[in-house]
Amino acid sequence: MSNTSSKYDVIILGAGASGLYCAMHAAARGRKVLVLDHSGKAGRKIRVAGGGKCNFTNMDVAADNYISANPHFVKSALARHNQWDFISFVAETGIEYEEREDGQLFTLEGAGLIAGLLVSKCHRAGVETLLDRQIEEVSGEGPFMVRSGSQVFEAESLVVALGSPAWPQVGASAFGYKLAEQYGLKTIPARPSLVPFTISGRDGKFCKELSGNALPVEITCEKSTFAGDMLFTHKGISGPAVLQISNYWRRGSALTINLLPTHNISELFESHKGENVALHNFLARYFTRKMVGLLLEGQDGETPVSQLTKKRQLALAERIHSWVVKPQGTEGFAKAEVAAGGVDTSEISSKTMESKKVPGLYFVGEVLDVTGWLGGYNLQWAWSSGYAAGQFV
């Protein structure tokens, strides 16, 4: 099969967040660790995370911030290596960070610092990292054999930290799922998540006309609601609130959007009914002129608020507080920050991340059916799951 063979205690496939963190902790236990990655640079997704500032965790992390077919799966790993553990790790090295809205923590000087920190910690702990290596074949179990070019590497423990197909532009693929299936593990079909929506028809035209405009909203889908900014795009809608709700959206589902969550338009009409202000001027106190024009669709803009019929008031309230839109789809894996779905967690030990069927085979990070909210939760899952496996490989 090859002309060279090298033996390790642990081989980790993938030099991303979960793979590097697992490698670092396994090596700290004295394990001989090899990390293999097809990319030319370790931690590529970390380097572009959070707009290049790396939203590396959140001040408030709980199982409720994750979506999985088994919502309890994340609890053990999150409890044993939580956000405070990772915050301490970052703080000890002198990397400066700031807290933004909703408890999100970002580096002040760029995501490269977090990626660089993991790479240097691995190097210092004696981890061997081989980049630009295509993984051509994985076979055996105890020991596992990994073929790359003319070399074969073997180890008693194999960690799959290959992520998901989200962000193919940084080398993401579905290879991790294929490996799970090769070893007889079930996978849940992956779909793009934390992703903008595409909208067509009349609502699509509304979005296109407002492209580039953002406003605070509340979005509800399938009994979940998120508040935050929404951005209109040429293709539909994006922005933090939209990305959050995309975790809960299924094809065919509708979104209900409150375009003015801080006020009740019916109450505003009532309290200003004595004013002789034209409707379009009244609404312009709360929305841009362009949006007012689109909301009114050329109707009764000049009508004084005091002369609006109850029926018209109710219709406007419905349009503003309960805009129901049915996305055509999403912008796909190319624009998705993560994937929902992945290796079925019922196949995996929540304590060790080891396959229940195949001893020595571990899965960590985004390759698993665990999807976090926007706000540092997916990286925290990478740290927690990577740490968990690193204690047992």
TrEMBL record:
It comes from the Bacteria. The lineage of its organism: Bacteria, Pseudomonadati, Thermodesulfobacteriota, Desulfovibrionia, Desulfovibrionales. The keyword Transmembrane helix does not apply. Its cofactor is FAD. This is HI0933 family protein. Keywords: FAD, Flavoprotein. Residues 9-391 form the RsdA/BaiN/AoA(So)-like Rossmann fold-like domain. Signal peptide: none annotated. Residues 191-338 form the RsdA/BaiN/AoA(So)-like insert domain. InterPro entries: BaiN-like (IPR004792), BaiN-like_dom_sf (IPR023166), FAD/NAD-bd_sf (IPR036188), RsdA/BaiN/AoA(So)-like_dom (IPR055178), RsdA/BaiN/AoA(So)_Rossmann (IPR057661). Gene3D superfamilies: FAD/NAD(P)-binding domain, HI0933 insert domain-like, Translation factors.
